[in-house]
Specification:
This protein is an alpha/beta fold. The mean pLDDT is 92. Pfam families: AMP-binding, AMP-binding_C.
Length: 559
């Protein structure tokens, strides 16, 4: 691709390179070891009542890896699921698993048994680390999976012996946040670390092409698929992010707010991997929906925060609170928005309160995920997703697959670079459908702006983005179709000030007495809360094409 076909290069600040070294380390485990040695005594993670230094993280991750090797006899390439929110145990489990050569499968702890079963069965994991609060869901479906080994962790396990036991007691018996479960043979997280520390860790030879993650995504078809992300893919994406932002990031000095769940690929690569690599401190927010607790943690650390990442809904939730205006973000100089489009009204209010612009970026799971960002030299909010990061090629193609370079002419956005996945796990057909001449099809319609900036104008598919999470109409429709009081249904996304998009269900009743609340109650038994339709409309019939396909575009335009 000629320089004329990389118009974004003219928008790079002088300090940003055109290309990067995609593999500065042989593996993420090597990167982890390097960072732990270089930033030994610096605090790596803070979460509620506890913290971990780089040295402590290294010690516990190695003990965890040793446990996996010696107690469970897990080998390079075996798969382990990690199902927990942002806790100190999370990085220990992930880095420990990577050091042992395992492939990590991130799992949303809020999944219903049905959703959990589908992912665990498809990935074929044989081991899992699960937060006790949601172990009851695992109990319901574990017999239908290949899981042989289970580690249970509690919220307070990372807070030290005395405080940890107190927190766990309150969570379990006072707040009653841990439903009863029965998982015979399960090991506690603390037991695993204790046993692992008694045995020597056996280093594993890892290469850039080895698969580090099966990161599940709906891709562009709505069917959950495991994107195979190699150690090299993630390392390249770290280098690309550093290529764009490295000249304003101070090694060993940053504190980043991590409210997006680390099981989400955006937070995993940027917050966890990138900032660990440069000696940053992650302020882990376990439940950002608990705004009272969230604000309390910000109150303790707002003067130390230098970097913030988030989704539009997170920024909006903060700026509408009066207490946020009292915080003095004296060190804050980099704010990155991802996961969903940042709304201009939210960005404007955030800028007025902090004096810092939200730099919107864009990525997808298949790209590890970062593809585009607005550079830190941006002086205004332009509503674009920015420009491609170093060593990334972008193109917009027409319906025939031919590149478009005219400004303002829409087409499908595609990306190519060292961060692109190795393919979908045991799904060659899905892989072939998403790849186009070495480029990943995003399923998004975009246009070129001046100087190589890219603007998303519509979605090629019908995916709905709720607070940065992908929701697919076909999944919800499939669940509702099981309800014998519904004749047929369709799902579309509608604009929402709170979540970016909200889910609207349009249904034809089989039972005339059916109410919207009864239909929502049915959905709650099968779907994660953010997938529950916010709006329900009953109609006499759904618009269909000549071949009987429901026309969602007509429903979206229906008032």
């Amino acid at each position: 691709m000629s320089k004329e076909q990389r118009p974004w290069l003219s928008s790079y600040p002088p300090e940003v390179p055109d290309t990067i070294d995609p593999c500065p380390f042989a593996s993420l485990a090597d990167m982890f070891d390097y960072a732990c040695e270089k930033y030994n005594d610096r605090t790596a993670f803070i979460n509620m009542f506890g913290s971990l230094s780089f040295k402590q993280t290294a010690k516990e991750a190695e003990a965890f890896a040793s446990f996996l090797q010696h107690e469970w006899q897990l080998k390079k390439g075996d798969k382990i699921a990690v199902m927990m929110p942002n806790l100190l145990q999370y990085p220990v489990a992930v880095f420990g698993a990577l050091k042992a050569g395992l492939t990590v499968v991130n799992v949303n702890p809020l999944y219903t048994p049905r959703e959990l079963q589908l992912q665990l069965q498809d990935s074929g994991v044989t081991a899992i680390v699960v937060i006790a609060n949601f172990a009851f869901n695992l109990q319901k479906i574990v017999a239908s999976t290949k899981i042989k080994h289970i580690i249970i962790t509690n919220v307070g396990d990372g807070f030290g012996f005395v405080r940890g036991h107190l927190v766990n007691f309150v969570v379990r018996f006072i707040a009653r946040m841990v439903p009863k479960f029965f998982l015979p043979g399960a090991v506690s997280f603390r037991q695993a670390l204790k046993k692992g520390a008694q045995r020597p860790f056996m280093p594993v030879l890892l290469k850039p092409d080895d698969i580090a993650y099966l990161q599940y995504t709906g891709g562009t078809t709505g069917v959950a698929k495991g994107a195979m992300l190699s150690h090299g893919n993630i390392l390249a994406n770290i280098s690309q992010a550093l290529g764009m932002y490295g000249y304003i990031i101070k090694r060993g000095e940053e504190m980043v707010l991590t409210a997006i769940p680390l099981y989400h690929v955006f937070a995993h690569t940027i917050n966890l991997m990138l900032f660990f690599a440069i000696g940053g401190t992650n302020l882990l927010i376990t439940d950002p929906r608990n705004i009272k607790s969230f604000i309390a943690q910000l109150k303790r650390h707002h003067r130390e925060l230098s970097v913030m990442t988030g989704v539009n809904t997170l920024f909006n939730a903060l700026i509408v609170r009066e207490v946020f205006k009292k915080f003095k973000f004296s060190r804050l100089r980099l704010v990155i928005g991802g996961g969903a489009a940042v709304q201009s009204g939210v960005e404007d209010r955030f800028f007025k309160e902090t004096g810092i612009h939200i730099l919107e970026g864009y990525g997808l799971t298949e790209c590890s995920p970062l593809c585009c960002v607005n550079p830190p030299t941006a002086k205004t909010f332009n509503g674009s997703i920015g420009i491609p990061v170093p060593s990334t090629l972008a193109r917009i193609v027409d319906e025939q697959g031919e590149p478009i370079w005219d400004l303002g002419r829409p087409g499908e956005l595609e990306f190519k670079g060292p961060q692109v996945m190795q393919g979908y796990y045991h799904n060659p057909e899905g892989t072939a459908n998403v790849m186009h001449g070495g480029y990943v099809r995003t399923g998004d319609i975009a246009v070129w702006l001046e100087h190589g900036y890219i603007k998303i104008i519509d979605r090629l598919k019908d995916m709905i983005l709720v607070s940065g999470f992908n929701v697919f109409p076909s999944e919800i429709e499939d669940v509702v179709s099981r309800f014998d009081r519904v004749e047929e249904c369709a799902v579309v996304g509608v604009p929402s000030d709170k979540t970016g998009e909200a889910i609207k269900l349009i249904a034809v009743k089989r039972d005339p007495t059916l109410t919207a609340e009864e239909l929502k109650a049915f959905c709650r038994g099968y779907l994660t809360p953010y997938k529950i339709p916010r709006y329900i409309e009953f109609v006499d019939a759904l618009p269909k094409s000549a071949v009987g396909k429901v026309l969602r575009r007509c429903l979206k335009n229906h008032e």
